[in-house]
């Protein structure tokens, strides 16, 4: 069992100006911290989360031994990001459905649940909100770390608050989404929005949940998180009947609607589970934040120009079988940083697990991160 | 404008025994022929179609100048498959919604529309039905040709009717689907089946069409037909506003539901168009036929053993950026055929268009097919 943690929250009167032109007032951020902030407040590590995660990065809640945080294998006492040395902060992003202010909460302006009226939030907006919470905690300089969409937030920190970020650890991420990435997001969104139970995003007041759409969205997501290889290894063309021993694994059922292959069973299960706890409006908001992130955009697509202002030291990690955020995308970032003569460490890990690899245990991956944080710790004690 | 053609149809009393154990009686096959069958009936080429296609392979219908068949660039007078030399037959598969007996037709056993009760059909069943039609046309030996799912039918012909198939031309195909392929099919099916308008597959009698599901299915399909590269080249991160000149291309709309990127506009358009003409039950049937195809299955997964009985000469073609049916899958087939000392020509075309490449003009691809058919023509006249 991991160490015990307590979720916290902090309220802000705002208004927080958003990139869309809208503003948020009276908002709350859920967060957790692990370890101890040192005397000169120099050992803070902010961990940013991706689509389906939260401020609960590591540890377990009291009395819930199986409630490990989503990066509990990476962060904790004696782990690669060692909470005996570092003060780690996880913050739930605005628009989420896991504690921070989001579409399920009351809009103070109307007294009604936000629903689809929750303003569009961007990676940059999240970073601004995170920075305000760190201000309140008395933390000026820090390391920022994240995988996937969390990596985009780490990248954005180095551009929005260059003087504050000493180190950025960016895992399985990209400088922006490709057309194919956006396309998958769009199909997922259309599945949700065209579910009759979506009710234009105001389904809460109808007492329904667009579960059909959420299931489809999650199934699509899952396919893109895994590699073709690992799916073949885990499921291949195995029949469900073979697993259940029903037909001695020899016979097709010959049905278009029943589950025939194990991969179908797995995807349906994942979709069902997700639709029970994830908010549909949050799904739209977070996929849109992914779509919009593109720091090179205001530099005419020139990534090198975009990163001219970053002064952090960088560790980038990618995984060979990740086709959602491929190594080529990380290499674009490495090149832009090297063009600017920044300090960059880059590891391309030959792992079979696709995009999901960033959440899994891989000895080489864990060693790379551990070494990087050990070097950071030495800098601190020097 | 292409040459004019006339669709035909032929009815069969059956019963046609299906792999599922069910049987079809009183069924009709829609078909077209181009060119002239020679005196010794040796110049026939059967062209098998994939998911979203039909017997209308080439040519145009009278008075409809833009009604070109789906492989009109490949097949016709003077084209790579030259109808001045070959007698080409296109047959619409059972279960389709384009003319042959399918879910939209009346079940003679009940007097009601089949709907979801149309029996599950397999690639092998389609080949049996095609063989009966060729019997009726007086054609014994032939060449069989197809791309994608059509290629699977060509492969199955060489196993089900080895003595009849002189040549098999198999483009952008595979010996079976991977877990990832099945996964994408399953998501598309779930989108259709969970659309409230699906009504368990008997939506016709309710006067509705599960268009939401069909749209999602088509959007997913489209993403997998294209390569990441060609999507980036065609759409990239281009905003719709830039195309429409609205905001001088600089501004995001900041919306989760409106179209923001061109790729979204394209996918929605493709989905809408498809949902207007394609039958939902047909979509389920055809994707299931894809899932089920696996000739090595009854040989314990040994593809070489499966192809021991094939005696045809083979041309296989794959495309480097096809991630749906990758070149590696074609190479598995080449290996199995070479293990059996079969005559195999194999071309791996470096084309950027993904799976869709098999339908497009690529000089090298067209030349490869043309050369192969010229060799075939020489064999005939020898």
TrEMBL record, chains A, B:
Subunit structure as annotated in this protein's UniProt entry: Homodimer.
Primary gene name: metXS
Reactions catalysed according to its record: L-homoserine + succinyl-CoA = O-succinyl-L-homoserine + CoA
Organism per entry: Variovorax ginsengisoli
Xref: HAMAP family: MetX_acyltransf (MF_00296)
Name this protein carries in UniProt: Homoserine O-succinyltransferase
EC number: 2.3.1.46
The keyword Ribosomal protein appears for this protein: no
UniProt xrefs under InterPro entries: AB_hydrolase_1, AB_hydrolase_fold, HAT_MetX-like
């Amino acid at each position: 069992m991991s160490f015990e943690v307590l979720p916290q929250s902090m309220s802000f009167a705002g208004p927080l100006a958003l990139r869309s032109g809208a503003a948020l007032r009276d908002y709350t951020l859920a967060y957790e911290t692990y370890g101890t902030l040192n005397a000169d407040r120099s050992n803070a590590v902010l961990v940013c989360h991706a689509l389906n995660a939260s401020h609960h990065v590591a540890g377990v809640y009291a009395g819930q031994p199986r409630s490990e945080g989503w990066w509990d294998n990476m962060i904790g006492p004696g782990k690669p990001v060692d909470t005996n040395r570092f003060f780690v902060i996880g913050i739930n992003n605005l628009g989420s459905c896991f504690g921070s202010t989001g579409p399920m909460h009351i809009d103070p302006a109307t007294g009604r649940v936000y629903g689809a009226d929750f303003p569009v939030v961007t990676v940059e907006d999240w970073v601004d909100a995170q920075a305000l919470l760190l201000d309140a905690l008395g933390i000026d300089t820090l390391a920022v770390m994240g995988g996937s969409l969390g990596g985009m937030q780490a990248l954005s920190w180095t551009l929005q608050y260059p003087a504050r970020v000493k180190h950025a650890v960016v895992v399985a991420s990209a400088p922006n989404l490709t057309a194919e990435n956006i396309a998958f997001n769009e199909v997922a969104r259309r599945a949700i929005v065209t579910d009759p139970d979506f009710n234009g995003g105001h389904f809460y007041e109808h007492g329904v949940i667009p579960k059909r759409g959420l299931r489809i969205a999650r199934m699509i997501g899952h396919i893109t998180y895994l590699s073709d290889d690992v799916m073949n290894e885990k499921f291949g063309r195995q029949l469900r009947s073979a697993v259940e021993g029903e037909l001695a694994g020899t016979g097709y059922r010959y049905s278009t609607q029943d589950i025939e292959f194990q991969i179908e069973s797995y995807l349906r299960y994942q979709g069902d589970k997700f639709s029970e706890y994830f908010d549909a409006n949050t799904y739209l908001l977070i996929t849109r934040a992914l779509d919009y992130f593109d720091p090179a955009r205001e530099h005419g697509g020139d990534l090198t120009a975009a990163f001219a202002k970053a002064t952090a030291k960088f560790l980038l990690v990618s995984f060979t079988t990740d086709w959602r955020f491929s190594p080529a995308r990380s290499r674009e970032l490495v090149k832009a940083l090297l063009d600017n003569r920044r300090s960059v460490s880059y590891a391309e890990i030959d792992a079979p697990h696709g995009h999901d690899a960033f959440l899994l245990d891989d000895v080489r991956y864990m060693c790379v991160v551990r070494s990087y944080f050990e070097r950071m710790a030495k800098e601190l004690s020097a």
